[in-house]
Write a structure and sequence with these properties.
It is built from ten helices and no strands. By secondary structure, it is mainly alpha-helical. It has one domain (17-209): AhpD-like (Up-down Bundle).
Length: 210
């Protein structure tokens, strides 16, 4: 199976050409350039283009970055669970930029190839009940903007109120961000694109097994 055939039904969404490019380096300001040096905290040796894209509006950027950092990398959910949730949202939203960025982060966090493929198939593809529940939460919030009772009750039994809110806000935040990325038409950075193609090629056999 060619690597580029691992994609959602209907294909990846968004315009064929970028509509809004990341803010040029000369326009980013001293503070932004200083903060960009700590991008390793987000698991990146280089700052992803989503940051200079959103920095076109500095007033929104700084508040967004503070909020987003409370979900990733400084969230309270385990990194594997967090990355699987983000990937599920990216897949449902058909957002290739979000998907590509978090494939690499998920692999670093220890997510298995089988779980990467399971993300594309939905909650029932996961054997682990706890993971299946979190993926179901993503599906509920994407399709209905509300957790069903069947999802809420076991989540409530498993997580504190603080973590329940984090689960819901994590899914909601990355759905919102997917809309921004898709509308802007932001393409993957070259090194992330290369990694994504390699990951897709590697799991192609598992996809064919399904």
């Amino acid at each position: 199976m060619p690597a580029d055939l691992l994609q959602p039904i209907g294909g990846w969404a968004g315009p064929s050409q970028p509509r809004l490019i990341p803010q040029p380096l000369a326009e980013r300001g001293v503070l932004f350039r200083a903060v960009s040096r700590v991008s390793r905290l987000f698991g990146r040796p280089e700052l992803p283009n989503v940051f200079p894209l959103i920095h076109h509006n500095p007033r929104l950027f700084w508040g967004w970055m503070f909020f987003a950092s409370r979900l990733m990398p400084w969230g309270r959910l385990p990194a594997t669970a967090r990355e699987l949730m983000i990937l599920r949202v990216a897949w449902l939203c058909r957002c290739r930029y979000e998907w590509g960025q978090h494939i690499e982060l998920a692999e670093r966090a220890g997510v298995s190839d089988r779980d990467l493929v399971a993300v594309t198939r939905g909650p029932e593809a996961f054997d682990d009940p706890a993971t299946r529940l979190l993926i179901q939460a993503c599906d509920d919030l994407y399709h209905h903007d509300c957790l069903t009772d069947d999802t809420w009750q076991p989540l409530q039994a498993q997580y504190s109120e603080k973590l329940l809110l984090e689960v819901m806000m994590l899914a909601g935040h990355y759905r919102m961000l997917a809309g921004v990325l898709l509308s802007a038409g932001l393409p993957l950075e070259a090194h992330i694109e290369e990694h994504l193609q390699g990951s897709h090629a590697r799991v192609a056999g598992l996809v064919e097994e399904g």
